[in-house]
Amino acid sequence: xxxxxxxxxxxxxxxxxxxxxxxxxxxxxxxxxxxxxxxxxxxxxxxxxxxxxxxxxxxxxxxxxxxxxxxxxxxxxxxxxxxxxxxxxxxxxxxxxxxxxxxxxxxxxxxxxxxxxxxxxxxxxxxxxxxxxxxxxxxxxxxxxxxxxxxxxxxxxxxxxxxxxxxxxxxxxxxxxxxxxxxxxxxxxxxxxxxxxxxxxxxxxxxxxxxxxxxxxxxxxxxxxxxxxxxxxxxxxxxxxxxxxxxxxxxxxxxxxxxxxxxxxxxxxxxxxxxxxxxxxxxxxxxxxxxxxxxxxxxxxxxxxxxxxxxxxxxxxxxxxxxxxxxxxxxxxxxxxxxxxxxxxxxxxxxxxxxxxxxxxxxxxxxxxxxxxxxxxxxxxxxxxxxxxxxxxxxxxxxxxxxxxxxxxxxxxxxxxxxxxxxxxxxxxxxxxxxxxxxxxxxxxxxxxxxxxxxxxxxxxxxxxxxxxxxxxxxxxxxxxxxxxxxxxxxxxxxxxxxxxxx
Length: 503
Description:
This protein is mostly beta strands. Helices cover 11% and strands 33% of the residues.
C-alpha cells in the first residue's frame, strides 16, 4: 500500500492465493486415471496444536542492528510485496554470511525492488531456454490500478519468480525512484544478479514459535496484514506505533517481520488484544512512519493470521552466492501456486527430463523441488538416457536413492551426497517421490492460471514432465484441471523440479 495516493490495494492477494489446511471449495480438483489430483491452490498442513510460545526462545528478540538493512520508502507505487521480499532476502544474506562478490553481506546490502517488480511482469527467457513462453502478465484494471506497477504482487509468487535466478541485483543497477514505470535493459534480467534464491520456507502465522524460529534462522520473514489508511486510526496507535485489527478483513499490505516481544503491553494498542505480545515489523513507508520506520503488530491480529478463514504464512528466503552453481535446469518459469497430490493421499512421484548442455566436467550437485505440507518425506533418484515417454527406464545413477524429511512447507535445494557426472547431449531424469505420514503429501507445480489481478502462463512440451503413482504414469503436459477464478478447463502443467549443476 502506498502512503501518498492512499489507495486501498497494495499487495493484491486474493483468497485463492491463501494457504489452507483444507482443500479449497473454490475449485474441485480434477481426478485423472492415475489417481492424481490437481488444484491451483496450495494446501499447507497446519499443526493441530501451536507449539508453546517462547519454548527455547527468548521473550524478546530483534534482528535490527544485526542483520537488517535501512528502512526504505515505496512512495506512490503499490509495490509493497517486492519491498517485503527484498528486505527478507537482505536479512537472510547477512544472517547467513553469504558472500556478495568477495566479501560476506553486510547491512549495507541494498537489493533492487524495481528489478524484481519489472521482470516479474516482463519475463525474459533463461540462458538454457527451459522457461521459454512462461510469463506473468498484469491486469491493471482488475483492482483499479492504471499500470503494471500498481496492480500489486504476492510474496510467494515473487519467490517462485526468483527461483529462476532472475535477480536479485544491486539497487544501484535499477534505482527505485528512477526506474519505476520505465523499461529496463534486458541484461538486468539474468546477467547482473548478485545472489541466487535457492529456496524458501513457510510457517503459518498462527504458529508463533515456528515463525520465531524462521526469524532466528533467516533474520526476517515476509508477511502480510490489513492496513487501510481510511480506517487506520481504529487499529493504529500513533503514539506507540502499535497496530491491532480484530476483524476478519482481507490482507492488503506486505511487510518484513524482524523480531518479537512477548511482553509488549496490550495497553499500547487502540483496541486491546486479549494478551500481551507483538511482532516487531519493518515497514517501507520511510523513517517518519512508526518508530523510525518500524512498528508493532499484535500476535492476535486477525488478518495477519487468516484471510477468508484460511491460514496466512510467513516466508523466509534462502539465498546463496551467485556462483553456487553454473546451470539451473528448469521448466517452471511461471508463478502460479499450483499443487499436485494423489487423490487417495498415498505416495507419488514427479519427474522432469533434461538434456545436459555442459562439457565433460559438468556435475549434477543439487536438486530443487517444492512441497505444500509439513513433514514431507522425499526420495531422489537420477536416471540417464531414458526412453521417450518412459522417465524411469534409463540407468539409475544413484547407487542408493537419497531420502530425507522436510520440516516445513516451501521450496528446497537438496544437495546430492555424491555428485553425478553429466555428459553433454545425454538426457537425465530427476525423479522425486513424495510421501507424508502426517497426511496428504502435496508438491508444487507450475500451471496456467487467472488470478484476476494477474495471469500466469506455463508452456510445456510433451515427454518432459511426469506424474506417477500406483495407478500408472501420466505426462503432465496432458494433465487437465480447472482454473480457480474462472473455472475454465485447462490442460498442461509442469513439475517444479530443477537440476543444479557445476562445470
